[in-house]
Every structure is written in structure tokens, then in C-alpha cells.
Amino acid sequence: MEWLPSRGKKREAGNVENEFASKRRLLEKPGQSADFVSLDAMDVDVEGDDLPGRQHICYGTLFSAKAQATSAPRHSMPPWTSFVSFPITERDGSFFLSQSFEGISAEFALLDVITTRHLNAVRNHGDLTFTAVVSSASLAKIPRQSSRKKTIIDITINILGPEHLAKTVGNILADRDSCLQHPNYLEPDIEYKNPHYFYPEGTMADLRRFVGPSTKITDSVQASQKINQILEALGDVPTAGFHVDDLDIAETASRFLSSTRLKDHQILGVRYILGREDMACSHAMDRDLWMLIDPQFASRLSAPGLGGILGDVMGLGKTLTMLSAIACAKQRILEGTVVDSPESPDILKAQATLVVLPSRQLLDVWDAEIKRHFRHESLSVVLFHKDNRCKDPRGLIACDVVLTTYHTLAADWKGSKVLQNVLWSRVVLDEAHWIRNQSTGLFKAAAGLKAMRRWCLTGTPIQNTLHDLRALLKFLRHGPLSESKYFEKYICQPIKSGPTLDQSFRNLQILLRTVCLRRTEALLSLPSSTTVTIQNTLSPEESAAYKRIETQCQEEFERQLCSKSKVNSSTILFQTIMKLRRLCNHGTFVTETVTQRSPSPSRKRGGSKGLATMQEPRDPSCNLCNPDEEDIAASLEGVDECPLCGRRVTDTAASQSTSTRRWLTVDGARNGCSITSEGNGTLSPTSSTARLAFPPTGYSSKLTAVTDNICESCALPGNKSIVFSSWRTTLDILGMLLTERRISWLRIDGGVTSTTRSAILSQFNEDESFPVLLLTIDSGAVGLTITSANRVHLVEPIYNPATEAQAIGRVLRIGQTRPVTIIKYVTEKTVEPNIIALQDRKRRLAKLSLDDQVTEGDSLDDLKFVLDTSRS
Q1: In which element (H, E) is residue 823 found?
Q2: Which of 93, 180, 533, 671 could cysteine-pair with 685, CB 3.0–4.6 Å?
Q3: Strands 454-457 and 307-310
Q4: Which residues form the Helicase ATP-binding domain (predicted)?
Q5: Average pLDDT over residues 850-861
């Protein structure tokens, strides 16, 4: 990069603090002669308050500019800031980035020569202003202490001026082969009209909708889109060579099923499962795979791994399909059609299928599905969980199905190894993407199980990286492609370097068609659904409280920086987002908690990082689940799961921090819901008889709107509503508001036992006097069928679009006969619209890593995106 020299004598370098002290000392660049000349700087602060207003517009942005910084600017900005704007000053043909502090301007970086020539070409043609936009990541590269080392940072240049000069400036830059682009950032209330943009109607119009970081399609995005296309086409996997027909399956399944009849796609699913479990069929499919990928392996294949991936999307009945396949396989063994022989005569062999599930709730769902669909004692079931754990593996071998959780499996793997000492007839991993990280004990515990057949149930076999799929192949014992070197050679490298998109993904497509069956929601003939978004506005009191939380966050961030502590930026930003989201729901009913640090016993002993008390293994890639700060647990207060990765948490985790609310808690608790004789929902957990009391003067603009909509819905006979929220406190307040309006309600959250949950669901489905069911998003988003409801209320936007879709899927699924209305509540000019924008951006530009790891920093960028409300 060439730097434009200035005329003047050489001076000593000084840091920003010395420049402010001398009030006029010039920035300089040691090591070059005659670098800088004095010129009064513009007195403009970092926020750009003195930049031109509406009389000036932005013409666009010059990209690929660079600046050479000698010291860090002294600026105060919110920690969620993604971009910072600095005025550009000119001296004798050179341009500098400057800032104002306490009324004194100082320059801290010199602009590169190429960009300088562009600016010099236009600066004398009118009243123009140049503004440098720098990412916070680039600013962080500049040493805060004085240094002789110069740091090169990437910047963009916004050009602003009167609207009548736009075409003139555009023509000058076009003559220099320089094109104006959409800005990364533009101060609020400034119009953006780009003279280089093609306007179909011939008249320049405001283009602010295009302001923001570039969203061009990258290679990783194209890869994601191609993989989605491949996955969408896996529903027609050929089964011509399978030694079982649909009539045999339907007849065999009917011997076990009570009154349930399998649907056509479920019969095909059972056929696929039985085919992949047949030695001859699997060997033929694997041989065909390698004949197409690399024939040299076809003659060297060992015994194939029996099993595969059932990747049907939510709502198609994967659970019933797999259970039916287990029943059919049992019958075939009894009839002698299939010989079930162990790998070794010395190992304890079980006829049972081990099913591993993400949570106790899903364990109960599988147990309930067996009781609901299958004849009594046609499939024997044992629960291997907590106090129900069998100490002797011989107690497991005679049953048909053993249900356990990933957490229990991991604990057993580290301890008595009861599950590890059995050769299972079959191992089924539900939500198998839980083992996608091969470095975790969770993966090692699952991969260490001994089984003759292995199955992965997951609608997302590939989430963030192609190696998510390799982890599943490793568990499945699926030949050479489960090994890193072969997977890289035959799958990853062609994608990275293939001449065309189709050729690049050829091997991956062949592999998936061999090992995976995946059908989409196109098979479901569901009633129509309508989505309505209710825009909510904070009251003045709520808005003031919102601003106080933002201010506290910035003060905490600056305090951590001044103390030079190793602050985790993600933690501070996440805590702030959680507080702001809670305020959007709770309004002035709840004053945010004041956290007092209380080191956990594990910290005192120098124990492991993160939350010491958790129900499920944490996601190693989640910044929230692996924090160093002890008070991060306070951010999880009142939720049943981590909002970022979905890990289950408990109130015990939050109790690592001592939190006190500014109102008293009496007669109140927040767990399960039972029904009083008056027909109103009350909270009655087994652990407490108290009830949460709220200030009578409290007000929540959003929950008032939710209550109004529910009351309006209840006025129409037959309408039933389910209401989802991340926070139990939200359900507390809603329950109180509904009771005041004489609306009867029921409730399910993380503290409700499986027995109570089943009773509540039955009462909601059958009793017309209870038109409302309140649920926490984690407790109600999976494993439940609530087709008696026809309205879904989502009280707040959810980080993970998949979780939101799962919640809606409780109502919009097989068995629904009525049109469904989905009502989403969003508070304007808060973090909530940004969460929705982040969801949309992730859907539109889902990026896939082709390497064995995900790029760090993405989650931090997401947090900043959510908090930055300057775009709205």
C-alpha cells in the first residue's frame, strides 16, 4: 500500500493523550521524511452529530480503502457497536481520520494514496463531506498504548453532499474507474441516493434499505444452498433391491399396533430401515457407492455398517416409523427370517434396541408413543434414567426397547459402563446432531456403544460444517468415509475445487443417497396457516427502564476495559440482551435483578469452567454455556434452556448468583399448574406452596396486548390458544392478567413432571372450559401434539428459528383439521426486531464451513447485531 506524503518537517510521534494535552500537536508518521503539515482539524465527535443533516445526502461508499494508524482513537461507544464513523480532515492534499474529544480535534490515521487521489478529484467541486466508517474489529487491532509500530486498518469512505451534486461526483469517480457501493453504516436520518445505481424509473430514490454489511452470496452460502437441494431430494431413495415389500410391512406392523395405521411414507420408511439392516442389501449399496466414487475401494470393503440416517423433517412421525421398524424386525427374528448373531460369543448380547434421547421429556414422549400406538406388552420398555438405572446389564437384555438420555449415557460411560457392556441389537440416536462434535465425551460415549445396527434420527444431518456428517458416519461405522483423510479427499476437496457446482457435490450426493432417507413437509396435507405480527410500543416508563439497562451495559463494559480484566465481551452483551428482552415482556412488573457474585464450590477448588449444575451436556461451541464469569448464571434466571444452543439448565444453575428482586415474593412459585375448583389456573409445584406476587402498579404493554388478543379469541366458541415464552416469569404475569379477565388457563413448564404434563394436556384437549395453555418454549416446543389448539401466540422472538418452527409444529402437524393462526409479538425500537432480522439473515445466508470447525466470532457478531438498534 502506498502512502501519500505531506509537505512539512518531520516531527516526533506522540500518542493521542499527548495530542489532546497539547491541543494542536500534529499526528505524524516516523520513518518517512516530511510526512505531515499542520492544518486545523474539524471539530466533529465520534457519533457524527455535527455532520450534515437532511440538506446533505449520502452518494455512496468507496470500498477497499486503508488507513495507517499510529495510535488508537479515544472514543466511547456502546460495546455492541459494529461500525464507528470518523470525520476525515484534509491537509495539503493528504487526508486523515480524526475525532473530537472535549472540544479538541486530533488525527490518528493517514489515508492511503489511491483513495486520497479519488477524494482530491471531487473535493473542490462543492460542499462535500467525507466520513470514514471503521469496523469495531479493525479498531480493536490498533494498540491502545503508544507504539512506534503503525497499524493498517480497513475502512470505507462515505461521501456526502448536496443532492444536486450527486451526478457530478458520480461522473468524476466513474471516469476514474471507481464505483460507489452501498454503505456499511450511515448515520440515522441521512438519505442515501447513489448516482451509480440503476433506477428503473429514471429518478433517484432513497436507498437506505440497502445500507448494511454486504450480503453477497459467498462460496459457503452456495455450498449450503446446494446441500439443502441435495437433502430435499433424498425422499426417493431406490429400494428395489430390498427383500421386503410394503404389504408385508403393513401386515407385520398391524400385529403390534393397536388401532394406528401407518401412512404410506411411514411404510416406506420402515422398508428403508429394514433394507439398510439387511447384510446383503447394505453390502450391495456400499459397493455401488464406491464403484461410483473410487472403484479401488469396492473390492476391499469389509462388512458394511448396518443402519443409516432417517432425516425426515419434523411432523412426519419419525418416532412411530422407527418403533414400527423395531417391531417388524422383532417379528422377522421370531420367524427366523433374519439371524441376529453377536459379533463375539463372549459379550453379553441383548435383543433390545437402545434409544438415546436429548431430554427426560422426550424419553417420556417415546414411552407414551409406545403405550399409545402399540398393543399392551407387544413391545416391552425399560427406562434407564436417574433412579431407574439398572445396575446389572443382564436386567436390560430381555426387553425390546431401553430408553435413556445423552446425559445419562455420558455419565454411565464415565462410571459403571452398564450400557457399554452390552451388545445391543440396535442403537438409535434421536436428534443425532447432538454428537456432531467428535471431541466431546458425548460423542465418545455414543460411538463406544456396541451394536449390530445403528441409526441416527435427525432432520439436520449437516448443520454448520460438513464434518457434522462425518461424526454421524463415524458412529454408524460407515466404512472409509468415516475417517478424516478419506472424507477430506473424497467429499470436502471436490467441493472446494470442483470445476462446476454439480461435479463438486457429486460424491456427497451419492453418499447421502446411500445412507440417508429424508422426506419433507410436502408429504403433509395440512390446513392453511396465517401469521400475524403485532407491533408493540414501550410505554414512557418502560422506555426509560430500557435506556437505563443500555447505559449500565456500556458502563460495565468500560469499567472492565479500564481495569484491564480479561472481560468476555459476549457475556456482557448477552446479559444485556437478556435483560432487554425480559423488559420487553415484563415491563414495570419486574425490576431487573441485582446480582451479587457468589463463587461456586467448584471455583473455590479451582474446578471446571462453566455452570456447575446442568441437566444436559453443554455445547462446546456456545459462548454462553462455557463462560468464565461466575455471574453468567444470573442471565439464565427464569429460563429452562440456553437461548443460544438449547442446553437444558435449572434454577440451581442460576442460584450460583444470589439475586434479589425489588419486590417481595410471597405465596408464590413458578412451576407446574393444577386446576382449582373455580376453574382458574394456579401454580402448585411440589417444592413450594408460595405464589409470586407482583406490584399492583406494574404494567406491561406487550402482555396487555397478548391478554387482549386471547380474550378476543376466547369470545369465539371452539377457539383454543397456546402461548409460548422463554421465561417462566412471563407466564406468571400472563396467568395473573388472564385470571383478572376471568380466562381459565393451564400451564406447562420445565418443573412439571411427565405425569402432570400428560394430565394437563388431556384436560386442555378435552375440556372446553380451558381455552388457554401457557408453555415455556423449551418444554412445549418438542415432543407434544396439541392439535386441539388453532391459535399460537409467540410472546417474543426466539433466537433459533428452528425452535420457533418446532413450537408452531405442536399445533400445525398431522391431526390438525382447522386453519391455524400464528400471532407474533414484537416491540418496536428494541432488540426484538433485530432478533427477527437476524433470523431472516441466517435463513437467507446460512453459511456452511467446509473445514472441521466453525469460524469463531460469529456469535459475537450476532450479539452486536441484535443490540444495535441504530438501524431501526
Answers
A1: strand 820-827
A2: 671
A3: parallel
A4: 299-479
A5: 59
Alpha carbons 804 and 794: distance in angstroms, whole number: 8
Q: Is residue 667 part of a domain?
A: no
Residue scoring higher pLDDT (541 or 344) = 541
User: Which SS3 state, helix, strand or coil, does residue 852 take?
Assistant: coil
Residue 641 has phi, psi (to 5 degrees) of -150, 160
Q: Which three cell numbers stand for residue 142?
A: 490498533
Same-domain status, 258 and 194: no
> In the structure, what pLDDT confidence band is assigned to residue 346 with cuts at 50, 70 and 90?
low
Phi and psi at residue 458, to the nearest 5° = -165, 135
| Cβ 181 vs Cβ 63: under 8 Å | yes
pTM exceeding 0.90: no
| 185, 247: one domain | no
Query: What single string gives the DSSP state of each residue in 700-737?
Result: -HHHHHHHHHHHHHHTSTT--EEEEESBHHHHHHHHHH
pLDDT of residue 745: 97
Per the CB < 8 A criterion, the answer to whether 405 and 357 are in contact is yes
- Asked if 303 and 801 touch (Cβ cutoff 8 Å), the reply is no
Q: Can you give the residue range of the structural domain that contains 248?
A: 226-523
**Contact in structure between 651 and 672 (CB atoms under 8 Å):** no
Q: Could you give the CA distance from residue 677 to residue 675 in angstroms, rounded to a whole number?
A: 7
pLDDT of 374: 96
Residue type, 728: R
Handedness of CA 64, 68, 74, 80 (dihedral sign): positive
Distance CA 89, CA 98 (A): 7
Q: How many CA atoms lie within 13 Å of 320's alpha carbon, on the beta-carbon side?
A: 25
